[in-house]
Design goal:
- This protein is of the alpha/beta class.
- It has 2 domains: 202 residues, P-loop containing nucleotide triphosphate hydrolases (Rossmann fold, 3-Layer(aba) Sandwich); 93 residues, no CATH class.
- It is built from 11 helices and 7 strands.
- It has a 7-stranded mixed sheet.
- Helix 8 packs parallel to helix 10.
- The longest helix has 19 residues.
- The termini are far apart.
- The C terminus is likely disordered.
């Protein structure tokens, strides 16, 4: 009998800590080593201490011979979902190495890679290392056949996750699928369509929800990121909390750029123009400040706003 050749075993024999499964537009899938892994924010995961501890405890299941509970992390864009996974994986891997436990690999799989999950899991099961499989920003368009494939994989088919493999999914969508109104209206039993959509979410044992911070929370993120870049003195704090956007009247009369009120005004305008107060928006604002670009950006955007 010819032995089944698993396409991922050769790649996993190499000593890489992280991989990405590439399959779209290819004749066969490839596990590609990630050479430049994204690092968590320099100032740490502000406001995410609770979810981080929960996720770390879940990943600690590896040490007890149990597979971590499949986890869904959903919420507003740019709120640190992927950064949380990277931080939890890095801490888990470092703990394994410091205590003599086999290392933990991180493997990112895209939606197009769902059909290759079973051979990937089989290859990981044959390895001494642990592995965390990540679907980042997962989303299913209406009528996507991969939706049912993935739902069955999570819970419902005959295959399960071995004890050395964990699964995490991040998404901006709580139910992971865009449900078209036409599909609901045309369905013979609309209730079954809704249940079908929610059934995927129900198959995760652990769910963590992320929300966009309010203005004060966003400005705290901005100041923390600027302090971490040595652009503001250590211990810089925002003035007393306010529900009003600082100094943003109709004429946008700005305080000096190097003053704390000026920084807060520009950060607030930046969030308005991006229609987001997420940690990612705060990160971009700090990056522009670090490169000396925020004055020109704020100035040009201020002019554009005044012309409206």
């Amino acid at each position: 009998m010819d032995q089944y050749l698993n396409p991922f075993e050769a790649a996993l024999s190499r000593p890489s800590p992280s991989y990405r499964l590439l399959s779209a537009g290819r004749d066969s899938p490839v596990l590609y080593p990630v050479q430049h892994l994204r690092t968590p924010p320099r100032e740490g995961l502000l406001g995410l201490t609770g979810p981080k501890e929960i996720l770390l405890r879940n990943l600690a299941s590896f040490e007890t011979g149990l597979s971590p509970v499949s986890t869904l992390i959903h919420g507003f864009r740019g709120t640190g979902k992927t950064s949380l996974v990277l931080e939890a994986w890095h801490r888990t891997d470092m703990h394994h190495k410091s205590t003599g436990i086999p290392s933990c690999r991180l493997i990112q799989v895209d939606r197009e890679g769902i059909p290759h999950l079973l051979p990937l899991i089989d290859a990981l099961d044959n390895r001494p290392e642990f592995a965390l499989v990540l679907f980042d920003d997962l989303y299913f368009p209406p009528e996507d056949p991969l939706f049912h494939h993935f739902r069955s994989f999570l819970d419902g088919g005959i295959a399960g996750l071995p004890a050395n493999v964990g699964l995490i999914v991040t998404s901006n969508h709580r139910h992971l699928v865009s449900e078209s109104f036409s599909r609901r209206d045309d369905a013979l039993h609309p209730g079954e369509t809704v249940d079908d959509t929610m059934a995927l979410w129900d198959r995760f044992g652990l769910t963590l929800s992320f929300f966009e911070p309010d203005l004060n929370g966003y400005l705290d993120l901005v100041l923390a990121k600027l302090v971490s870049r040595n652009l503001l003195p250590l211990g810089t704090q925002r003035p007393e909390p306010s529900n009003e956007e600082p100094g943003l009247g109709k004429n946008h009369d700005f305080s000096p750029a190097d003053s704390l009120p000026g920084i807060l005004q520009r950060a607030t305008l930046f969030s308005r123009l991006r229609a987001s107060r997420s940690g990612r928006t705060a990160e971009w604002f700090a990056d522009l400040c670090e490169r000396g670009l925020i004055d020109s950006v704020s100035g040009s955007q201020k002019s554009e706003s005044s012309d409206e």
